Amino acid sequence: MRGRSTLAILLALLLTVPVVGGSNSAMQMEEEEDMGPCMEEPEQPCENQTIMYLWSNGQSRHWAHFNANETDNAADNLLSQEKAQGVITIDERFSMNPQLTKKLNMTLDGEIRIVLDIYLEGDWTNNDNNGPCTNDCDELNVTLWSGATEIITKHVPQVSNGWNTITITHRIAEDQTLWDASTSNPSLQIKMKVKGDRQQTTPITVSGEVANFTMRLSGDGQTRVELPIDPTSWEEGFQADDTPPMAEEQPGFLFMAAVATMTLAAVYLPNREEESENRRDRS
User: How far is CA 144 from CA 28, 56, 148, 187, 237, in A?
Assistant: First the structure.
């Protein structure tokens, strides 16, 4: 009898575990619904956030993410380099930080749209007899990366002195649809070489132009990368890990364990009692 009492207590404990777990899960789901689908990881893409924004501290650190707000962005919302004489080299890569944590499914033939606001002074075209560039300058080149995979590189020669709003579009090809979280962290690379030739010609006059490259960051919402992330990306089946869960993680595991124990008790304990009675009778 003492053995049966102990077993009954153990069974009761086992059967209460799934109930407690289910209650916690329900409460967690209600909290997530109240928070909204994007609040848990506000810098990650989600069904309401498919635009990647570009940020910089204005000096050596540049990054990107999907939140339209960033407290560490340069106060003037600008990334700028200037040089009176010689070449300034722009080769900046805005990689998503924090790292992408979701697997993304891009819509086949969906449009990527890159919008940049860039201010220029100086010369950037080689050997056009319209400035100091010989073979030491480069026109604007913009590359969107998915990890180490080049999605699009666009050469942009049609820019002028002053502010330029540059729009680049690209259609997703069949081999560009899947962006896996572990290998496809997105980034935007901007490259250009601009040359200045400002010099003092007399004590009171100067000639030539300075080299200046200034890009407006995403603080005003203009500079951005719009990605055609397919709505299927947010489905649980798409995001789920292909590795099957451990037995103890599967729903109903504890319940089945309790049922198995009850069956064992129903079969094994009466047999033990019968054997004990038979032994007493023979003695």
Answer: 37, 17, 10, 6, 28
User: How much is the CA Rg of the chain, to the nearest whole Å?
Assistant: 32
Distances (CA, A) of 175 to 150, 164, 233, 240: 11, 32, 16, 21
pLDDT in tens, 61-120: 999 999 999 999 999 999 999 999 999 999 999 999 999 999 999 999 999 999 999 999
| Residue 221 main-chain phi, psi, to 5 deg | 80, 0
Q: How many CB atoms lie within 10 A of CB 40?
A: 11
Q: Domain range spanning residue 130? A: 51-63+79-95+109-239
Of 141, 148, 149, nearest to 172 by C-alpha is: 149
Q: How many domains does the chain have?
A: 1
Q: Which of 196, 207, 206 is nearest to 122 (CA)?
A: 196
Give Cβ neighbours of residue 166 (< 8 Å, ≥ 6 apart).
114, 115, 116, 117, 118, 140, 142, 156, 159
CA distance linking residue 50 with residue 143, whole number of Å:
18
Is residue 115 in some structural domain? yes
Residue 179, domain member (yes or no): yes
